[in-house]
Amino acid sequence: MPSHPEPTGLAIGIDLGGTRIKAALVDRADGHLLQRALRPTEDGDWQDGEPRFVHHVAELVAELESASGQTGLPVGLAAPGLAAPAGNAITWMPGRMHGLEGLDWSACLQRPVRVVNDAQAALLAEVAFGAARGLGDVFLITLGTGVGGAVWSGGRLLTGARGRGGHLGHISLDWQGPQDVFHTPGSLEFLLGNQTLSARTEGRFASTLDLLAAVRAGVPKALALWGQSMRVLAVGLSSLINVLDPELILLGGGISEGAGEDLLIPLQSELDACEWRPGGHAVPVQLATAGEWAGAQGAAWQA
């Protein structure tokens, strides 16, 4: 893993979500959250010609800086979408978070702000303080409404030329399959994501958590569908292993947290059947550990 200076001192991390804004005062030496605060995002509401969430973020930064007793603290902001290479804005986030695209956060807050994709921020929290600490090659898959991800490769966050690096849910597993929202046919997200489950099961299950409850109750149809989902996920992970050669795979997001061992055990069985293991080496797979404040924590670390 390449050596690089570890961030130190206090920083403010902002996790700008679709419904809530999480803000934390973080000690970057150990990741400890010294102070936390929440605001509603109020996506779609405007104030003084700006999205209302800009004003909420400014208030949160002022509140946490006051609590720290310091001024001029570094600020990092995590948000959905593609982050600009310059790290000052989200350049692409269609359909929601109105006003976020192209918003220069350094100009809005009148101080340097480092902007990062939210899944990438969550992985940074794991690398800095969680399950991936000390590792140079790790990737994170988040299982929720969709399937997201982020990659830490050679001791660096993989972002790519336009910020698309790490969008692991959009690898194709079926070249003849329906296109997902990014035009990828038969993507991992389409075949596994919560948002397509009802259509994929002809309305039998409204959500993955509903499916999981039926699995735990031993419903035969649910067990078959869950087994199919684990096969899909294992094939996707095996493909990514062949490309990225990680030391560890982390699973995050609401589905992973809710499923726990009911996810890990059958997934491992499927990986046993399809993972390339030179010299018998299997890549460990485990649940992410940083928790629901990982976005804010990771944003603060890289501020």
Question: Any chance you could write out the topology, listing elements then pairs?
Answer:
Elements: E1 10-16, E2 20-27, E3 32-40, E4 46-47, E5 50-51, H1 52-68, E6 75-79, E7 82-83, E8 90-92, H2 105-109, E9 113-117, H3 118-129, E10 138-143, E11 147-153, E12 156-157, H4 188-192, H5 197-200, H6 208-216, H7 220-244, E13 248-252, H8 254-259, H9 261-274, E14 285-287, H10 294-301
Parallel strand pairs: 1-6, 6-9, 10-13, 13-14
Antiparallel strand pairs: 1-2, 2-3, 4-5, 7-8, 10-11, 11-12
Descriptive report:
With 303 residues, the protein is an alpha/beta fold. The protein has helices at 52-68, 105-109, 118-129, 188-192, 197-200, 208-216, 220-244, 254-259, 261-274, 294-301, and strands at residues 10-16, 20-27, 32-40, 46-47, 50-51, 75-79, 82-83, 90-92, 113-117, 138-143, 147-153, 156-157, 248-252, 285-287. A hairpin with a 3-residue loop joins strand 1 (10-16) and strand 2 (20-27). Helix 3 (118-129) packs across helix 10 and helix 6 (208-216) packs across helix 7. The two termini are 21 Å apart. The mean pLDDT is 95.
CATH superfamily of the largest domain: ATPase, nucleotide binding domain
Q: What is the terminal-to-terminal distance?
A: 21 Å
Q: Can you tell me the CATH architecture of the largest domain?
A: 2-Layer Sandwich
Percent range of helical residues: 25-40%
Strand content: 15-25%
According to CATH, what is the topology of the largest domain?
Nucleotidyltransferase, domain 5
User: Uncertain spans, ≥5 residues at pLDDT below 50?
Assistant: none
For the record, the count of structural domains works out to 2
Number of helices: 10
Computed over alpha carbons, the radius of gyration is: 20 Å
